[in-house]
């Protein structure tokens, strides 16, 4: 996947491309029918996804689904359409046509933060402005929209009662304003505690006071995963989470993914390292030329002649 595909979650899903997919939530009988037929236990379903960039068809017609609680791998040779599919799911690109359903709901064309609010979250590189913040601050600012505003309020100095208030109004002001501030502080404390627990889970709590910009590549990957968990996701989209990660950290990260999967989280993983995919994913989807070429367990994929042909000699 190319780094140029990366966009921060804060940015709009409208990337300046013309998309002709219908607006999300459009009442359309085919969509309603598809949503109805999405079996329980299938959090993510992609249906006839197509994405064109000008004259280039990056994804031609891709359909697949991801089972609840699974670690599913999405692989394919260079240019197969993996990144584009991933970005259409995460809301970075609006599909030209086709549908994305999450937990039976049509989320096609939603912006990244709207997709994230549904519980479908992708990892993001630490944004430049976050590099000057500590690891703990990065964690506490991760669940934007839920508590971020309260956190902001909590660092704003107490607002004194305006002069024009009469005595009884002033007394009321004094009663109400401190109460509000205590509630915010409690929320901040809960958030801080959760941030610490998550940092401990990833064994990077010793880095809590370090600037995010000073972390190694592998430590950053752990922080990116830890930040995702702060948003309390149902499903996590992992975009080459092991790139630049040393073997020790790689083992640690994969162990954490398996632990979380056992707790019920669902993962879709795009990864170029075939050993990682084959050894860790119980279901593998292979894309080639913008469509799904094959899917199944590792052994099925390894022995599939179409897959071998598509990779033309790459070791799988
Ligand atoms: N923004 C874009 N503008 C034009 N063409 C694009 C754009 N993004 C992707 N493509 C093209 O779409 C096709 C699929 O690209 P995509 O990045 O989705 O493949 P990929 O399977 O992720 O590849 P890789 O494994 O090499 O990262 C490629 O031919 C690529 O050049």
TrEMBL record:
Residues 44-314 form the ABC transporter domain. CDD domains: ABC_Mj1267_LivG_branched (cd03219). Pfam families: ABC_tran, BCA_ABC_TP_C. Residues 1-43 are annotated as: Disordered. One of its GO terms (cellular component) is plasma membrane. GO terms for molecular function: ATP binding; ATP hydrolysis activity. Keywords: Amino-acid transport, ATP-binding, Nucleotide-binding, Transport. InterPro entries: AAA+_ATPase, ABC_AA/LPS_Transport, ABC_transporter-like_ATP-bd, ABC_transporter-like_CS, BCA_ABC_TP_C, P-loop_NTPase. SMART domains: AAA. GO terms for biological process: amino acid transport. Probable component of a branched-chain amino-acid transport system. Belongs to the ABC transporter superfamily. This is Probable branched-chain amino acid transport ATP-binding protein LivG. It comes from Halomarina oriensis.
């Amino acid at each position: 996947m190319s780094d140029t595909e990366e966009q921060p979650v804060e940015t709009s899903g409208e990337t300046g491309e013309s998309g002709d997919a219908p607006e999300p939530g459009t009442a359309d009988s085919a969509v309603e029918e598809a949503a109805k037929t999405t079996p329980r236990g299938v959090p993510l379903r992609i249906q006839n996804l197509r994405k064109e960039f000008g004259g280039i068809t990056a994804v031609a017609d891709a359909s697949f689904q991801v089972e609840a609680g699974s670690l599913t791998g999405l692989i394919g040779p260079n240019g197969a359409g993996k990144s584009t599919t991933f970005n259409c799911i995460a809301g970075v690109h609006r599909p030209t046509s086709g549908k994305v359903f999450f937990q039976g709901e049509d989320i096609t064309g939603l912006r990244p933060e709207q997709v994230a609010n549904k519980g479908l979250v992708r990892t993001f590189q630490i944004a430049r402005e976050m590099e000057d913040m500590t690891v703990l601050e990065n964690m506490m600012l991760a669940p934007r929209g839920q508590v971020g505003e309260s956190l902001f309020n909590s660092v704003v100095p107490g607002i004194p009662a305006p002069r024009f208030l009469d005595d009884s109004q002033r007394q009321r002001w004094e009663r109400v304003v401190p109460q509000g501030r205590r509630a915010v502080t409690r929320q901040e404390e809960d958030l801080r505690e959760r941030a610490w627990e998550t940092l401990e889970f990833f064994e990077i709590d010793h880095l809590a006071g370090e600037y995010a910009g000073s972390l190694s590549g592998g430590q950053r990957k752990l922080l990116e995963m830890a930040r995702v968990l702060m948003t309390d996701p149902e499903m996590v989209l992992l975009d080459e989470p092991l790139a630049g990660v040393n073997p020790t950290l790689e083992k640690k990260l994969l162990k954490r993914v398996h632990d979380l999967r056992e707790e019920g989280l669902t993962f879709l993983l795009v990864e170029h390292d075939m050993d990682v995919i084959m050894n860790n994913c119980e279901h593998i989807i292979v894309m080639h030329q913008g469509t799904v070429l094959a899917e199944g367990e590792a052994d099925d994929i390894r022995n599939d002649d179409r897959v071998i042909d598509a990779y033309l000699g790459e070791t799988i």
